[in-house]
Amino acid sequence: MIYKTESELLNNEAISEQNDKITIKNLEILQKKTVDDLVDTIILGQDPHLRRLAFWTAHNLGEQIGILPSSINSLYEAMGKNELSGFTVPAMNIRTLTYDLARAVFRSAIKINAGAFIFEIAKSEIGYTDQRPLEYSSIIILAAIKEGYKGAIFIQGDHFQVKASNYLKNPDNEIKPLKELIQEAIDAGFYNIDIDTSTLVDLSKPTLDQQQELNYRLCADFTQFIRKLQPEGIDISIGGEIGEVGGKNSTPDELKAFMDGYKKESGSEKGISKISIQTGTSHGGVVLPDGSIAKVSIDFDTLMNLSQISRSDYGMAGAVQHGASTLPNEAFHRFPEVGCAEIHLATQFQNIVYDYMPLPLKEKIYSWLHEECSSERKEKWTDDQFVYKTRKKALGKFKKEIHSLKFEEREKISKVLEEEFSFLFEQLKIKNTKPMVDKYVQAKALHKTKDFFLKEERDLGVLEGAD
């Protein structure tokens, strides 16, 4: 149900509001019905004011129940000191059916008492999935309420990326909107942000320091910017990147060149907590002419060596693996074994949604792709390759239709994804990490007023960057 009035949204069987404070009257009804209605209002509603009221309600309810957006930084500091090891934190990009998939994540986590997992969305995904940060964080909180999950939750801005061609033409025009997005994300409870300035690495330069200079200098600048914005009592977890995913594999000397330059530029500021590297993967995988995904060989030796160096020499949690969700199942147990700190997973979740999507809607989406995205088609691509590479672009356009699938259709997709999440959580060894999170992460309730949420949403236009 979509709420039609402010009174209906804020005063119903489950909750009531007085003097800008929400009171929970009936938790059972809240979980059974009201959170679903709030989600429908956010995704399907037409009234911007009511959508923003739903954002405020979601965050206010989360604060009361104990579902608190947090920074994973202190857990990563413990990993950097070798106080914790043996697991790899999954960071999951939820591009579509966010509420249903987030619920599946929480159900999978509750079953094994897991707490070390991250919800994330990339700069580019915010654009093409039509999910601004405040909508994303609100939906995650409502999913946690629905499934009865409590404690710290980690929401991350992934690949907050500088586009090299834009930067080289006009640095200020590229940096300013990215800083505005960072501000928006922090306001929404994104206390984990991955800065990607690796696009500015110039391998034509004669020395490693010169190759990495723009990368580490801008990463340090963004670190200082984030530290000035972070709420009191929270050290935002910041990630850096030395090798653009899909490029050549990273080396220990590149890591040292980046980190030594970064430390010099950032001075006394608390630095990054992890480092993304390239080990042979690409975002979305490599799609073959028949639409299948090519097998990729990950350089686990590089991942292990760079993780060790990042911990022993720089006190970070370890290296981060991108572009991994389409890897074969037998690969995932290796990541905790080699000390990988964090693994980013995205495309396979989207693939499963498309696999189980009703055929009429899927055909409608594919027809739209052929009409609207034909300019992106490369000369030698088959139809299968074209659709696979571009179908993410339809998720924002068809967000409401996908969310409006029949209950049994959404439930089927959610159950299949729950099995996928459970498998990944088992392989990545995050069982019983909830007590670790509770010990090391001091989840903090940051009360924000209704007026804060009623500010007009920013319109930052089309967002570009890695997927």
Explain what the structure shows:
With about 475 residues, the chain is of the alpha/beta class. It has three domains: about 5-65, no CATH class; about 70-355 and about 405-440, TIM Barrel, CATH 3.20.20.70; about 360-395, no CATH class. The protein contains 20 helices and eleven strands. The strands form two sheets. It has an eight-stranded parallel beta barrel with strand order 4-5-6-7-8-9-10-11, surrounded by six helices. The protein has a two-stranded antiparallel ribbon with strand order 1-2. Helix 9 crosses helix 10 (about 210-230). The relative contact order is 0.16.
Short description:
The protein is an alpha/beta fold and 467 residues long. The chain has 20 helices and eleven strands.
Radius of gyration: 21 Å
Let me know the average pLDDT: 92
The main sheet orders its strands as 4-5-6-7-8-9-10-11
Strand element count: 11
Which helices and strands appear, and what pairs or packs with what?
Elements: H1 6-10, E1 15-18, E2 21-24, H2 27-44, H3 48-65, E3 67-70, H4 73-80, E4 89-93, H5 98-112, E5 118-122, H6 123-128, H7 133-147, E6 151-161, H8 164-169, H9 171-187, E7 192-196, H10 208-229, E8 237-241, H11 252-266, E9 274-277, H12 300-312, E10 319-321, H13 334-337, E11 342-345, H14 347-356, H15 359-372, H16 383-390, H17 399-403, H18 407-427, H19 434-440, H20 450-453
Parallel strand pairs: 3-6, 4-5, 4-11, 5-6, 6-7, 7-8, 8-9, 9-10, 10-11
Antiparallel strand pairs: 1-2
Helix pairs in contact: 2-3, 2-7, 3-7, 5-7, 5-18, 9-10, 10-11, 14-18
